[in-house]
Amino acid sequence: MKYSKEDKPERAGGGGAGSRAVPVALVFLFLCGFSFYLGGIYSTGRTFTLFDPAATAATTRTLRVPLSTKQETSLAIANSEEEEVEFPECPADFQDYTPCTDPKRWRRYGNYRLSFMERHCPPPPDRAVCLVPPPTGYKPPIRWPKSKDQCWYRNVPYDWINSQKSNQHWLRKEGDRFAFPGGGTMFPNGVGAYVDLMADLIPGMKDGTVRTALDTGCGVASWGGDLLARGILTVSLAPRDNHEAQVQFALERGIPAILGIISTQRLPIPSGSMDMAHCSRCLIPWTEFGGLYLMEIQRVLRPGGFWVLSGPPINYENRWHGWNTTVEAQKGDFDRLKKMLAGMCFRLYAKKGDIAVWQKPLDGASCYDKLTPVTSPAKCDDSVDPDAAWYVPMRSCVTAPSPKSRAAAKQLPKWPQRLGYIAQDRVSAVPGGSGSAMKHDDAKWKAAAKHYKALLPALGSDKVRNIMDMNTVYGGFAASLVKDPVWVMNVVSSYGPNSLGVVYDRGLIGTNHDWCEAFSTYPRTYDLMHADGLFTAESHRCEMKFVLLEMDRVLRPTGYAIIRDNPYFLDSVATIAKGMRWTCDRHDTENKENEKEKLLICHKKLWSPKSTQ
What we know:
GO terms for molecular function: methyltransferase activity. By secondary structure, the protein is α/β, with parallel strands linked by helices. It contains 17 helices and 20 strands.
């Protein structure tokens, strides 16, 4: 409960013994409180260092933050140039720390449908309050486009995946680096030949019809990497599993990827977003649980979109010998798969060799109208928004696109004209959203990107490849960079208007996220993080310290952060950033007269853990 000055009771007048007892009681309370305060300092291990005032213009207090919030009683970060904060280094085994998909916590969760691999974030008392160290020998990544084919071994020093997958040509260790020859379980002749065959089966991959794709069980993302040169943006998805760092390898190569698994929760992607989804022997049991996983693919695919499957049970007639099964079992699985997909209104579009392609109907009204909440498969009712995707359980039902969604899919231009496309039903879901508002937003970010490049020449060069826009609405910042050698992960707040569908309609990619939690990625995976008004928007929910520590975990050493916000928040950000060993400079925005919005451009330094010094 909050009190105002008017709520305070007036002090009663008059003397007497009662009034003389008040100062004694206050002194007693003060001494008790001070004793408790000193005990708190020495019991938590927090130290305060006072620098010699003769050596500095002002006395500076340094707050050394404990490793875990379990050790904290309180930590107030003041807006003062005279107060500094220091964060300790995390232990060496935190170098691949993923807070919300931490294998050390898996035993706390059930095995049902591998749900322990989903997001399970630590509660606030268990959060690590420290700086994640780089591996020993880490150095700035190889720059794009060379990085697509090789990366430094010391940056992702994982030998298990090399020893287990080298025979399938996923990767191989060559001296001080890993090389990626472009092989895979289902494409021994190389990913290029595999995608060539796929493009022959799906002509839309060649003419801009297919722009966004989802790769489930992506390995080291060679499929998504090959598609980049064909003008197709892929979200490569893999869990944190025993393959060790599939997603980290992908991002180290400069290929879009996030940690995730199709299990019990929806993917953090709106309905009708992907032009294509792909599984190359991804080991997802598509026909189990009543086809639940297929229903999630059906939800995220755009009307007219394609689902591509290679591996069991495709081409079982020639492949079953190597799958430790029988031809009868594989035939039965293939028949079940075809029946389930037909029941969801898919049609078998093409099949050749190891690849089969199904298509979701562009209209499909006659088929969807036959489904009801009691048929098998069932048709989803309207109780849950099909675009809601943040910690939303998957539903065992088919998501029938609305008439407006089907009409919009028919009108969708091919890439690159699609970048300026405005789907009115999606845009109108944003408060104040309209076609003119989106065009105004694009103009704003075009000017902003030009200004950013003048202040930060690395943006637009090969020094910056992986970019995250932490708080986007329409994807305007990403659209302004579409001709640069970068890709942008557009993040739409799970607590704000869900405009992520607009981003995908434009041919861009992204995810929903709540910045009070850790992002679904490995440490050191992005070159630039852009935060537009993030702290103003989330200050009532998320503690600034944890958001900034998460940014530090995600940023590559030598990476950059552009923080655009109210000066009130930038003062606090600068204080915490200094404690994370960042260097920051403050600038005007492209609109110099705007005093309510300023820029903080920060650079993360490459440092060596003390344990290795």
